[in-house]
Structure formats: C-alpha cells, structure tokens
Amino acid sequence: MEYSLHFGAVWASFDRLLSGLAIGLALAVVAVAIGTVLGLLAAFAAVSPYRPLRSLAGLYVALIRNLPLLVLVLLAYFALPQIGIALDKYQSFAGALALYSGAYLTEVFRAGLLSVPKGVIEAARSIGLTRLQTNVSVVAPIMLRNALPSLGNTFIGMFKDSSIAAAIAVPELTFEARKINVDTFRVIETWTVASGLYIAACVVIAALLRGLERRFPKF
Amino acid sequence: MNKPQPLLAIRGLTKQFGAVEVLKGVDLDLDQGDVVSIIGSSGSGKTTLLRCVNLLEEYQGGDIVLDGETIGYRSVNGRRHRLGDRALSRQRAMTGMVFQSFNLFPHLSAAGNVMLGLRKVLKLPKAEARAIAETWLARVGLAARADHYPSQLSGGQQQRVAIARALAMNPKLVLLDEVTSALDPELVQEVLNTVKGIAEDGATLLIVTHEMRFARDVSSRVVFMEQGRIHEEGPAAEIFGNPKSARLAEFLRNTRH
Amino acid sequence: MQAFLDQLWIARWPLWDGLLLTAGIAAAAIAFGTLLGGIVGVQLAYAPWWLRLPFRLYVDIMRGTPVLVLILAAFYIPAVAGLSLGPTEAGTLALTLFAGAHIGELLRGSLQAIPPGQAEAGRSIGLTFPQLLAYVLLPQAARSALPPWINTGVELIKGSSLLSIIGVGELLLRTQEVIGRTFMTIQFYIFAGIVYLVINIALDQLGKSLERRVGQH
Q: Which Pfam family, any one, appears in the UniProt record (chain C) (predicted)?
C-alpha cells in the first residue's frame, strides 16, 4: 500500500477548522459560565446545614456525572421537543454541556468551600457580618481563588467535550474534520491537524490560566 | 448608693460539648474600662467562655448581658431560643474579638481587613471607612503597611492588623484570645505593647492569656479558671502575689519561670 | 407507559446485546489500558529523560485530544495504513489508548507521592529495582491510585457511548435504533440513561468498598 503525506488539501480547508475551533470554544465558554452559576448554587447547598438541600445537590452531582454527555445531548436535542421544548442544536448542546459542567464544578467549588479556614469565617462573623455577607465578601472570593486551577481544568475538559456537538451536526472542529476526512481522504493529515488544534488550544488556555493564577497570588 | 450596672454580666453560664461539661456555671462582671485577664490551664474553659461572649458558641444555660441587653437567646414561655442570624450579627458587632491565629481575610489588604466591617456592618461610605482604617493602622504602628496583604506581613504585624480590625468597629468590649500564642517569641512583645496601649486608652478588655507577666502588668483584675469554673479572682497583685487557693498557687508555680 | 413497556419487551434482546457490548468494550479498555498505563506510569516516574520523552508525548497528546477525535482517528486511519479494523476494534483501541494515558499519569502521581525513604529503605535491605517496584512501590501507589482508577472505569463506560457515532452496536446505538422504529424518543433515552446510571453507580460503590478494604491496613 502507498500513502504519502499531503497536507495541501487540509490546509485548503484550514479556515473551516479554525471556525470550528471558535464554535467549540464559544460553546464551552457559554456552558461553563452557566455551569459556574449552577455549580456555585449546588456547592453552597452541598455544605449547607439543611439536609434536603444537601441531598438535592448530591443527587444532581451523582445523576449527571454518571450519565454519558452524549445521552444528555441527545435528550436535549431529540427528546425535549416531544414535551414541547424545542431548542436549536446550539442551544440544546450548550444547555446539556452547562448541566454537565455544573455537576463537575459543584465538586470543584465544594472542595474550595471546605478549603476556606474556619477561623477566617469566625472572624467575619465576629465583626458582625451576617451569614450572607460572610459568604459574599469573605468565603466566595477565597474559595474562587483556591478553586481557580480546578476551574481551569474543568473548562479545558468541557472544551474537549464540545467535540461531542459533532453528533448533532454542530459545525465545530470535530465535525469539520470528519467532513474534510470524508471529502479528501487525507485521513492521517486531517486527524493530525485536528488533534494538533485541540492540543494547541488546550496549551494556550492552560498558559492563560497560569498567568491569571499568577496575577492573583495564592493566599 | 446604687452601683451602676456592669457593662458585661455573665450569669450562671453552662456549656456542654456533647456529654462533656466545659462551663459549669460561670459568673463574671466587667465594668466600663476594666481590663480582666483570665488565666488557667488548657481545658479550663477560658477560651470557650470568650467564644460564648462573642456568640461564636451556643451555650445551654445562663445569661450574658451586654450593656443591659441579654444577648444570644430570648425566652419565650420559659423556653430558650437562639436568636436569628441578623440579631446575632448585630450583637456580635458590639464585641470585638482577636483570635489566637489572627484569622485575617487573606484576599484583602490590611486596610481592607479593617474596612470590611465598617463598610458592610456599619454601612460607612468608602472614604470614611478608609480614613478610620488608616487611623487604626497608624495606632497599631502599621500606617505604612495599609496596602500590604496578610501573606506579606509577619505574624506580629498580622495580629496588630487583627487588633485594629476589632477596635475600628468601636466595640463596647474587646475579647482577646491568647493573642500571642501563635507568634514566634521575638514577635510577642510588639503585640503585647499594642494591647497595653489600647488598655491605657481606656478600652474594656477581656483577655485570655498564658503570659503571666503581661497579665500582671495590664490587668485591673485577674480571674483563675479551673475545670469550667471560676476558682479564684481578684486584683492582679493579690492573685499573683498572694494566691489564696492551693490550686492557684500550684498553677502559678508550674507556669512561672 | 404500557406502550413503552411493550416496546421495551420487544426490544429486550437488542438492548441486552448492546449493554453486553458496552460492558465488554469498557472492560477490555480498562484491562489493556491498565497494563499500558502501568508501563507508562513507571517510565514517567523513573526513566531517564530521553526515555521518558516519548511516553510524556504520548500522554500529553492523548490527554489534549477529545476522546471522540481519538475514536474517529482510530476508525479512519487504520484502513489507509492497510490494517483492517472493524469499528468495535477501532473504538476499543481508541479507548484503550485514552485509558493508558490517564492511568499512566495517575500512577506517576501516586508513585512520586511515596516518601523517598521507602525506596531508600528497600534498597538498604538489598532489593533490586524490579523487586523494589513489585514489593514496595507499586503496592503503595496502587492503593492511592485506586479511587481515580475506578473513576477512569466510569469515564470509559461513558466514553463507550461515543462508539455509537462510528456505528458500534453498543447500548446507545441499539437505543437509537429502537427509537427509530418506535419514535419513543424521551422514553428510550431516559431508559438508556438509567442503565448507564445503574452501572456507573454500582462501579462507584464497588470502588468505595474496595477502598475501605484496602484502607484497613
């Protein structure tokens, strides 16, 4: 068999791969933004003194983390219309990924909350801050800083998972790569470039995050 | 002649951690301007007593009356109910607490630490809070460190910021919980001098300490606690110079070097 | 509901086959992935830098690439290289390579977390390096790597659902085929979701009980 590498056909479609990459990043940003809100709420619920709230948060995490993301995506895109909720493919994927990332972020923020020293919380209570003020002005900033590295890793994970949007024909990087693969038969070149783009994006995101971590020194 | 009501009156305070009785009926009065030190071996309940006054601990029996207001609980039909978050927060703001481990807010500068309560609890405008913070930081000798973060300060400096944070709220009473125990020996004196200074300014202080010389110098009264009770109390000179109970004499023998 | 149960009964054997394939693929990937990861982890922790480099490269490429891309690459590339791999083999290969990288990395972390005194003590009683590895280091590392290893198993069960995209008749593809025939979209996706949940939660519980047992030393 003969196979020699020719990247020309892949370079010709490089702009499609790049726009696919941008779509994947955008989906991850939207999903993690919503997931952060979900994760914060669930994390505070998970450490609250009220048992029903704790159980609810635990249920959310156990349910979502043990389901394949693809099943969530297919449910959101194909099954929700059956009960009258019709979302387009972008909305349903972003929604599914938000729900999914929220469960992982709940664990991230829960660990962050437990990392806030008890004495610092007592100091805030002692000068007369209410529980809510303590959470907003003292606990949340410390927790977010401590959670920053894990938050970044979760974002990278969700960006990689944005590839699953290809399953419902969202024209992101993996979808475009598969199309180029089928159109040009430059199989090895296509997947090398696609994988390289994902890795490059991950490396850049990780470097940006490290810069962010340096700007806010660890306490 | 009527004696004016004390600033702080603790009446029959009892507290249990599970089955362990930590406080077994404590009575203690502080008048405006008093500086009272509590001494005693570890486990005698002195830190717990302080934390009860700051409402950081719940207690099962007795009352704490601060400036005429019973704090922490209210009685409804003879049953005690812990007050709600808002009321507890307001009452906590009436006392300042300085902790053994400083407990500065790591994400805020020295000035930010002092300003947080002024802004959020006393609702002062930012500029005014900043001015008060700077005044208090200058008072504890840290005017030049206002914009440093806790991680950039020595232990002694952190503790002085914590003292400024407590005093800036203009509390009726300041509680100091072994404020030098977590410090390296060479940093102890700067913190003790700061406390002495605020005592001379007329602040009302309730101090838990292991520093006997300091307790003797600064206190108007000294309380010796033993196994959840006040075992002996009196003027500093009496307690240290002429202990009445054998237990106190033994405690002083073992701690004085 | 009755209609769904009727359809479920009709579809029971294809779904059962799909479930078996899902479990088989995940089991094969964790087994081969653990073998691979064992080698990779030891190399990453102890090999000289020139030998470590290719393993580091492998791990970083696998961890930086989405699993779906690995699966598609494993599906399309072997054919042009003259290998004939069916979709099931290709998908299992991709998941194995993915698992090997993850397990290698977590084993490296566990090995490097062992206090250096352990290796020194082993050497001082005259153990060779393979003996040291087998009797002192790996048993300790395995204990701390157990929880994330179980978690990798859960990820593989979840990841195996992606093989439906290349036409492997595992649980999710079988589910989609049933939906294509019955149009009971919500019902059958939820059914599949529950099956995944049950497997993964069982795996999780198994991990926790194993952890308790090993933790008792």
A: BPD_transp_1
